[in-house]
Structures are given as structure tokens and as C-alpha cells.
Specification:
heterodimer, A: alpha+beta, N-terminal domain of TfIIb, 4 strands, B: 288 residues, alpha/beta, Rossmann fold, eight-stranded mixed beta sheet, 18% strand, SAM-dependent_MTases_sf (chain B), Putative 18S rRNA (Guanine-N(7))-methyltransferase (chain B)
Chain lengths: 122, 288
């Protein structure tokens, strides 16, 4: 699972009002090389919750992202490549996602988070 | 035994390792799936500016549909309830991210972040109650509600569906409209029993000129669901904020005439209805 998906994902357990962002517990992270597409990054930038992305990237061991970001930084190639790396190239292979409110743990196996809820959580 | 997989077993059981393997070994299935996806993508009518979009593939299964999305350069997130199918997707090394998730439990994405959603032959599973805790209406509502929230305004969702009958199609569509979607059904090849394919084309937010129903393939007709009944077609934003019952605005309530009319209707249907008397529809005293 990439951080792109993590940034979109929120916990939807019954009664949880703010299930975003899910905390990450890492067991294994892999890197996969992907082509950089500046257009996509620019269009995604407005949708990304930057704080959550920085936090998630740090928790899986990538701390090259600046704390604050604004759209003007998208012109810098250096920034784009870091953004790209964090968003699309780092994959959480094994680990756990944790709901920030209830502490419910969603295991991640082979890169696939198991987000199935129990019957009493729906 | 029925040929419809929905009637045989719940999806997480029906799509076991054996069934999942078919999706890599059968070139016919692969061809059909990719054709369906291409058509769905066409109906999605994304702006043609070469910018990749973030799409959702609901019921992505082994990732066949996702591969078509990747070919077109889009990023996608796929969700499916069957671990076996997702394992096949892993083997195929699909480019999108995969989630093990039950669409009937709601999608669980942040609001407004997804540029479009497709689903190939999956939505009809929502109409089944495979566990005692499953209530199709609630699941449909959770699904469409959460989908509406996570889609960006003006974004589209295209679902290729195999509804079992008219009732099922109306049920699915009604819940889509209730969630706030506008749109209808596009039928490709309506005259051929085998080739016939239905697509639910839904738009997030009120309909506009640019999002009018697209043309069908083959010699086809536009099947605007529950035709002629405009109220079911769209639930506009303004409509949704209208008080549920007019009664509240009229204050006075429904009155004797209304009750008599209803009773007459029921009688005509052959139901048992108490006789009309001077007590019919009379107000209770305040002290009651």
C-alpha cells in the first residue's frame, strides 16, 4: 500500500467521527521505482492532507519532506521528486494501520490492508 | 443450479482459489473484463487532458479492470472482499493499491478526494443477504452514501451491473438517487441476450449539460430508468433539504377527507378496513 492510499483512507467504524489519519506501525517497507508524472502530482497536491503525509512518511522512515508545503513549491524539481517518492514509491508491505480514535488495528499483509469490519462495528 | 454466481455463495466464498485462477488462465474472461472496463472508462468521461486521475475500482478482483486503468495512465485503488482474488492480483503485479474491504460496510475514504469510480459486475452482490447481519437496503445505503462523500464534486461513477430482475435494478438505482447521485442506466446491445450489458452512470451532484447521458454502443436505446418518472431520476440538492413531509408545513394535519380517501383505496384493494363512522379521523381530546 502506498502513502497515496493511506492519505485517502479513513477508519469508518461505527461511531468514529474522525478516523483520519490512520496511524502506521511498520514491519516492512519496500520501494518500487515508478515514473514521475508532474501533472499528476500537481493535481493531487490539493487533495493531499500534507500533515498526514509528512507524518506517515516519517513513521515509515522517510523524513525528507518539509513540514509545510504550498502550491508554489510544486515548481521545484527537488520538491516534486521527494513528493513523488513519498507518495508513490514507498509501499507499506507488512504492518498495522491503527484507527486514531478506537485503536482498532487493521493488519497489512503483503501490502493489502485488511479493512473488513466486524459485525458490531458496522 | 442457477448460473448466477450471486445465488451460489457469498462473494468471499464463491471467489475462492479455483474461481480466482480462472481470471488469469481464461483468455476469454480477460478479454471480456478489459472490454467492459474500457467501455466503463469511456462512460466515465474524464477530461481528456492527459493528466492521470485517482480512480476507485470497486470489486477489483484479480485486477483485470485495474490493468486497463493503468494502461490509460490512471492511478487507482481497488477494493475487494475476496482474499483469493486479491492474491491473484498480487501475482499479476498490478500497479494500483489493493484493499480487502466489504463495499457494503461503506468505503471509508476522506471526502471529495476520488476523481471517479468504476465497478465491473460487482454491485449486484449488494442485493444479497449472505449473513444474518446483512440487510441489503442498509448495505446499499452505506455503499452509495460513502461513495457520494468520497467522490469529488461533478465526478462520475460507472458501474457495470448484472441485475437479476427489474426490481433489483430499481432498488439499486433508488438508493443511488437517495444518496444524491443523478444519472441513469445505459444499455449496450439491448437486443442481444448475451451481449447485453448494463451500465449505471452516476454523477455526483446535480446534472449539468456536460454530464448528460452518453451514447450507447450497438443499436441501442436509452433506458432512462423508471422512464417518465422524473422525480426518481434525480434528487437535486435543493430537494434534499426540503422537509420530509409537507404535513409539517401545513400544520393542520391530514384531515377527514384524506383518511376517507385512503380507506376507500384500501377497500378497493380488498384489504379489511373498519367502517366509516362519526369517529373516523376525529381528533382526540387534549386531555388524552
Amino acid at each position: 500500500m502506498r502513502l497515496l492510499t493511506h492519505n485517502m483512507l479513513s477508519s469508518n467504524i461505527k461511531g468514529v467521527t474522525n478516523g483520519f489519519p490512520l496511524r502506521i506501525e511498520v514491519e516492512k517497507v519496500v520501494e518500487k521505482e515508478v515514473d514521475l508524472n508532474p501533472d499528476f502530482l500537481r493535481s493531487m497536491f490539493s487533495k493531499i492532507d500534507w500533515k498526514a503525509l509528512v507524518h506517515a512518511a516519517r513513521s515509515i522512515g522517510y523524513s525528507e519532506l518539509p513540514d509545510e508545503a504550498d502550491p508554489s513549491m510544486l515548481d521545484s524539481d527537488d520538491f516534486l521528486s521527494r513528493f513523488h517518492h513519498a507518495l508513490l514509491q514507498l509501499h507499506l508491505e507488512e504492518g498495522v494501520l491503527i484507527c486514531p480514535e478506537t485503536g482498532r488495528r487493521f493488519p497489512v499483509n503483503k501490502g493489502i490492508p485488511n479493512m473488513l469490519l466486524h459485525e458490531d462495528e458496522v | 443450479m442457477s448460473s448466477r454466481p450471486e445465488l451460489q455463495a457469498p462473494p468471499e466464498i464463491f471467489y475462492d482459489d479455483d474461481e480466482a485462477r480462472k481470471y488469469t488462465s481464461s483468455s476469454r474472461i480477460i478479454k471480456i473484463q478489459s472490454e467492459l472496463t474500457e467501455r466503463a472508462l469511456e462512460l466515465l468521461a474524464l477530461p481528456d487532458d492527459g493528466v492521470p486521475r485517482l480512480l476507485l475500482d470497486i470489486g477489483c478482483g484479480s485486477g483485470l479492470s485495474g490493468e486497463t486503468l493503468s494502461e490509460k495512465g490512471h492511478e487507482w485503488i481497488g477494493l475487494d472482499i475476496s482474499q483469493s482474488m486479491l492474491n491473484v492480483a498480487l501475482e499479476r503485479e498490478v500497479e494500483g493499491d489493493l484493499l480487502l474491504r466489504d463495499m457494503g460496510q461503506g468505503l471509508g475514504f476522506r471526502p471529495g478526494v476520488i476523481d471517479g469510480a468504476i465497478s465491473i459486475s460487482a454491485i449486484q452482490w449488494l442485493c444479497n443477504a449472505d449473513k444474518s447481519s446483512h440487510e441489503p437496503r442498509r448495505r446499499l445505503k452505506a455503499f452509495f452514501g460513502s461513495l457520494y462523500r468520497c467522490l469529488a464534486r461533478g465526478a462520475r461513477a460507472v458501474f457495470q451491473v448484472y441485475p437479476e430482475n427489474l426490481d433489483q435494478r430499481v432498488l439499486i438505482l433508488n438508493f443511488a438517487m437517495l444518496a444524491g447521485f443523478s444519472g441513469g442506466v445505459v444499455v449496450d446491445y439491448p437486443h442481444s441476450a448475451k451481449k447485453r450489458k448494463e451500465y449505471l452512470v452516476l454523477t455526483c451532484g446535480p446534472p449539468s449539460v456536460s454530464t448528460s447521458a452518453p451514447k450507447e454502443d450497438g443499436e441501442s436505446y436509452s433506458d432512462d430508468e423508471s422512464s417518465g418518472d422524473d422525480e426518481n431520476q434525480t434528487v437535486c440538492v435543493s430537494d434534499r433539504h426540503r422537509p420530509r413531509k409537507k404535513q409539517r408545513m401545513m400544520k393542520k394535519g391530514k384531515g377527514r377527507e384524506w383518511v376517507l380517501k385512503k380507506k376507500e383505496q384500501m377497500r378497493r384493494r380488498g384489504n379489511y378496513v373498519p367502517a366509516d363512522t362519526k369517529y373516523t379521523a376525529r381528533k382526540r381530546k387534549a386531555r388524552f
